Amino acid sequence: MWDYTDKVMDLFYNPKNQGELEDSTEPGIKIAVGEVGSIACGDALRLHLKVEETTEKILEARYQTFGCTSAIASSEALVDLIQGSTLDEALKVTNKEIADYLGGLPQAKMHCSVMGQEALEAAIYNYRGIAPEVHEDDDEGALVCTCFGISDTKIKRVIRENNLTTAEEVTNYVKAGGGCGSCLATIDDIIESVRQESAAPSGNSLKKNTASQQAEKPLTPVQKIALIQKVLDEEVRPVLIADGGDVELYDVDGDSVKVLLQGACGSCSSSTATLKIAIESRLRDRVSKDLVVEAVEPSLL
Amino acid sequence: MHKDCIYLDNNATTKVDPAIVEAMLPYFSDYYGNPSSMHTFGGQVGKAVRLAREQVAALLGAEESEIIFTSGGTEGDNAAIRAALLAQPQKRHIITTQVEHPAVLNVCQQLETQGYSVTYLSVNRQGQLDLNELEASLTGNTALVTIMYANNETGTVFPIEQIGLRVKESGALFHVDAVQAVGKIPMNMKTSTIDMLTLSGHKMHAPKGIGALYLRRGVRFRPMIIGGGQQRGRRAGTENVPGVVALGKAAELELLHLEEATAREKQLRDRLEQTLINTIPNCEVNGDPANRLPNTTNIGFKYIEGEAILLHLNKHNICASSGSACSSGSLEPSHVLRAMGLPYTILHGSIRFSLCRYTTEAEIDAVLAIMPDIVERLRALSPFKNDNVGWLQQQEKSVLGVGR
């Protein structure tokens, strides 16, 4: 049996804010709806907001949830927290505030508070006409994270697209593993399989990758430099930029590649790891296995 | 939990019968000797252990020498599986089902990492096996077929003897986890095809921490627990004498009450089930209606979530169980209901009521009185009122059939 606080139990047994809000005919009033959740986890939430258009104030909020005790209590908490606030103020509500309002939730139930925060975000995005990103293939793979209903297909995609190397990063990107955490070891395995897949000398990933195909032929010095530049621009820099850093190609001399690490990467204590993992291994994979990457100290230039 | 609770979770564990408590108490205080001792003080305890062995054997239609006392169902399952493999080291294949208890499934999964191959037989929407699939899976390399007698979640009873005949033809050993079936279904090992059978005390009104493994005479056995020569070297360790005495008494009482108690439980179960199905819209029974334990009903209440139902029941001092993720302490939905291919709307709202010989008419009436209101309250909160909600359909499509 879960160890719920009295507040959770009270809100669960005596819900006050459940229900729907019909589309309003009142001038200046708009109803916004946000839906989130996963039937796989047994949690789904639909949040309705009655918004005053001139002030963007939430005049009223209601919810419907297919969920457990903590999902119902989290929905109640969310409504209590946002009623009367503006959309911008409401957007600042975190899942931690929802959990705190309830006097805490069991660790494995924290995803219920995340779901409340996500439904709020979805409702406000809908109101503002911001379309959420949709990835058609995400629903096809095997379910890895049951808390958030996230498939291995989606996790693999986010790992590939963002060059993620730890389960913690995966959690930050797609929340997989952020609920009960029982799938973190599986996520580690998926990261490893993606890494091996990208390092494999043959297979589908290679066929799709023109850079690698080019790497199989002997390259002229100009072709080699152009390919290094291309890999840096297309595959390495976006990741570093996302982390507040950047890299610039300084020189190529035989198999020695000299780069300038910039921004957060330059001062980052793990810049050696960045060089070896993010840059050197990627260039070895894409251009030539003999490449050695070194950073050039800006002060020495 | 309040002592006046309405306890309908007997497949999880049972109340210890007062007559059993009375039978075991002297073995904590007055008769505390070691049953293996040579002196009379220990010898009289040894006699009590022998009597218990006879009582358990009688319940199974077995012989006294075929009973090994264990610490419970999990040890029985582990010991049987490992013994069967150690006795036939040249064979590397195991057959089991997707709906076994973790005491079998997790052992099989570990064995897969040690070079064994395991076939997990599928089940249909009623939770029933396909014997053709079993036959197709049996090979000369199959060391063991381990299949439960009755499922703990749905009560579905497998055709054990039909399975056993096929297993015998293949030359494999046949182990049956009968933890839920013993005391509810008559057993006769003398005419059975079963080589090994596991039972557990706390599912039949004995305390937790005691169980037994039936081992057919002549079947080669390699002990899992090694030490002193107790129990003919097949399970070392000084016997849990109060537990053994309790199990013996429990077996005696189960045999005594089997016919009349199961008939009564079935009648109460059927009334509970039929009335719920008739009075509450959008719910259905999970499991094989024709081959089911007499004490178990598992009902899926669509569009709502099991834990929420359980907590409302709990407020009325009613104990039941859920096939939903959230009630079980893990977030993974029931592997049994998933293997049956139930849509998530049903499996997340599935509640198991399991009765025992103490269950009364009044208790069933109390559940019937409160259940419609609970379902209605929770459905009022639910965003899903029917199967035509696009949001729901999309999610069902995306997750159905994923995973085991």
From TrEMBL, chain A:
<dbReference type="GO" id="GO:0016226">
    <property type="term" value="P:iron-sulfur cluster assembly"/>
</dbReference>
<feature type="binding site">
    <location>
        <position position="183"/>
    </location>
    <ligand>
        <name>[2Fe-2S] cluster</name>
    </ligand>
</feature>
<dbReference type="Pfam" id="PF01592">
    <property type="entry name" value="NifU_N"/>
</dbReference>
<dbReference type="GO" id="GO:0051537">
    <property type="term" value="F:2 iron, 2 sulfur cluster binding"/>
</dbReference>
<keyword id="KW-0479">Metal-binding</keyword>
<dbReference type="Pfam" id="PF04324">
    <property type="entry name" value="Fer2_BFD"/>
</dbReference>
<feature type="binding site">
    <location>
        <position position="180"/>
    </location>
    <ligand>
        <name>[2Fe-2S] cluster</name>
    </ligand>
</feature>
<dbReference type="InterPro" id="IPR002871">
    <property type="entry name" value="NIF_FeS_clus_asmbl_NifU_N"/>
</dbReference>
<protein>
    <recommendedName>
        <fullName>Nitrogen fixation protein NifU</fullName>
    </recommendedName>
</protein>
<keyword id="KW-0535">Nitrogen fixation</keyword>
<feature type="binding site">
    <location>
        <position position="145"/>
    </location>
    <ligand>
        <name>[2Fe-2S] cluster</name>
    </ligand>
</feature>
<dbReference type="InterPro" id="IPR007419">
    <property type="entry name" value="BFD-like_2Fe2S-bd_dom"/>
</dbReference>
<feature type="domain" description="NIF system FeS cluster assembly NifU C-terminal">
    <location>
        <begin position="228"/>
        <end position="293"/>
    </location>
</feature>
<keyword id="KW-0001">2Fe-2S</keyword>
<dbReference type="InterPro" id="IPR041854">
    <property type="entry name" value="BFD-like_2Fe2S-bd_dom_sf"/>
</dbReference>
<feature type="binding site">
    <location>
        <position position="147"/>
    </location>
    <ligand>
        <name>[2Fe-2S] cluster</name>
    </ligand>
</feature>
<dbReference type="InterPro" id="IPR016217">
    <property type="entry name" value="N_fixation_NifU"/>
</dbReference>
<feature type="binding site">
    <location>
        <position position="41"/>
    </location>
    <ligand>
        <name>Fe cation</name>
    </ligand>
</feature>
<dbReference type="Pfam" id="PF01106">
    <property type="entry name" value="NifU"/>
</dbReference>
<feature type="binding site">
    <location>
        <position position="112"/>
    </location>
    <ligand>
        <name>Fe cation</name>
    </ligand>
</feature>
<keyword id="KW-0408">Iron</keyword>
<feature type="domain" description="NIF system FeS cluster assembly NifU N-terminal">
    <location>
        <begin position="4"/>
        <end position="130"/>
    </location>
</feature>
UniProtKB/TrEMBL annotation, chain B:
<protein>
    <recommendedName>
        <fullName>Cysteine desulfurase</fullName>
        <ecNumber>2.8.1.7</ecNumber>
    </recommendedName>
</protein>
<dbReference type="InterPro" id="IPR000192">
    <property type="entry name" value="Aminotrans_V_dom"/>
</dbReference>
<dbReference type="InterPro" id="IPR015422">
    <property type="entry name" value="PyrdxlP-dep_Trfase_small"/>
</dbReference>
<dbReference type="InterPro" id="IPR017772">
    <property type="entry name" value="Cys_deSase_NifS_bac/arc"/>
</dbReference>
<dbReference type="InterPro" id="IPR015424">
    <property type="entry name" value="PyrdxlP-dep_Trfase"/>
</dbReference>
<keyword id="KW-0411">Iron-sulfur</keyword>
<dbReference type="InterPro" id="IPR020578">
    <property type="entry name" value="Aminotrans_V_PyrdxlP_BS"/>
</dbReference>
<dbReference type="GO" id="GO:0006520">
    <property type="term" value="P:amino acid metabolic process"/>
</dbReference>
<keyword id="KW-0808">Transferase</keyword>
<dbReference type="InterPro" id="IPR016454">
    <property type="entry name" value="Cysteine_dSase"/>
</dbReference>
<keyword id="KW-0479">Metal-binding</keyword>
<dbReference type="GO" id="GO:0046872">
    <property type="term" value="F:metal ion binding"/>
</dbReference>
<comment type="similarity">
    <text>Belongs to the class-V pyridoxal-phosphate-dependent aminotransferase family. NifS/IscS subfamily.</text>
</comment>
<keyword id="KW-0663">Pyridoxal phosphate</keyword>
<keyword id="KW-0408">Iron</keyword>
<dbReference type="GO" id="GO:0030170">
    <property type="term" value="F:pyridoxal phosphate binding"/>
</dbReference>
<dbReference type="GO" id="GO:0051536">
    <property type="term" value="F:iron-sulfur cluster binding"/>
</dbReference>
<dbReference type="InterPro" id="IPR015421">
    <property type="entry name" value="PyrdxlP-dep_Trfase_major"/>
</dbReference>
<comment type="function">
    <text>Catalyzes the removal of elemental sulfur atoms from cysteine to produce alanine.</text>
</comment>
<comment type="subunit">
    <text>Homodimer.</text>
</comment>
<dbReference type="GO" id="GO:0031071">
    <property type="term" value="F:cysteine desulfurase activity"/>
</dbReference>
<dbReference type="Pfam" id="PF00266">
    <property type="entry name" value="Aminotran_5"/>
</dbReference>
